[in-house]
Specification:
This protein is about 55% helix and about 5% strand. It is mostly helical. The chain has one domain: Winged helix-like DNA-binding domain superfamily/Winged helix DNA-binding domain (Arc Repressor Mutant, subunit A, Orthogonal Bundle), CATH 1.10.10.
C-alpha cells in the first residue's frame, strides 16, 4: 500500500483546517507549501466526500464538515484516492500474480489490514493532539513485538 501525494496533501489540508477553524484556499496553500489550484482540486474531492465544507463566493472559505474527532485518516485517504484495496499483493501490487503460492502474501495482507485499521481508528483530533495517541499506539506495538512468542 502506498499513499499518493494527493492523499498526503489532503491530510495537510484537513489538519490545517482543524488547527485554523476555517480558511481560504490561498491561506492553506501558503501555509502548507502547495499551489492554490492543487488545494482547490483536493478541496473539491474532500467536499464531495463530506469531509470539508466549501463556502463559495469572493471570500469563500473552507471548513471541516464534522468535528475533528469524527474524521478519520481513512476517510481522508479514501476521499481522494478511493477505497483501499486489500486484495493486492503487499510487496508488488502491480506485478505480482502469485497470490496463491507466495509465502509472503498472507503476512502482507495482515500488514495491510493493520494499516487500514489504524487509519480507520486514528482521527484528525488524535493527530492534532500532539501525537499522544500515536505515541500510545507505538509503545503498545513495540511491547507486542518485543514479547517472545
Amino acid at each position: 500500500m502506498q499513499l499518493s501525494r494527493q492523499s498526503d496533501y489532503a491530510m495537510r489540508v484537513v489538519l490545517d483546517l482543524a488547527l485554523n477553524e476555517d480558511a481560504r484556499t490561498r491561506e492553506i496553500a501558503r501555509r502548507q507549501g502547495v499551489s492554490p489550484s492543487y488545494v482547490g482540486r483536493i478541496s473539491q474531492l474532500l467536499n464531495r466526500a463530506g469531509v470539508i465544507r466549501s463556502m463559495r463566493g469572493r471570500l469563500g472559505r473552507l471548513s471541516l464538515a464534522q468535528p475533528p474527532q469524527d474524521i478519520t485518516m481513512l476517510q481522508i485517504v479514501e476521499a481522494v484516492d478511493g477505497p483501499i484495496r486489500l486484495d493486492r499483493c503487499f510487496l508488488a501490487p502491480e506485478e505480482c500474480g502469485r497470490e496463491g503460492s507466495c509465502p509472503a502474501y498472507h503476512i502482507g495482507q495482515d500488514i495491510l489490514r493493520y494499516a487500514v485499521t489504524a487509519m480507520g481508528s486514528t482521527t484528525v483530533a488524535d493527530l492534532c493532539g500532539n501525537g499522544r495517541k500515536a505515541a500510545r499506539t507505538r509503545s503498545r506495538r513495540e511491547r507486542a513485538i518485543s514479547q517472545p512468542r
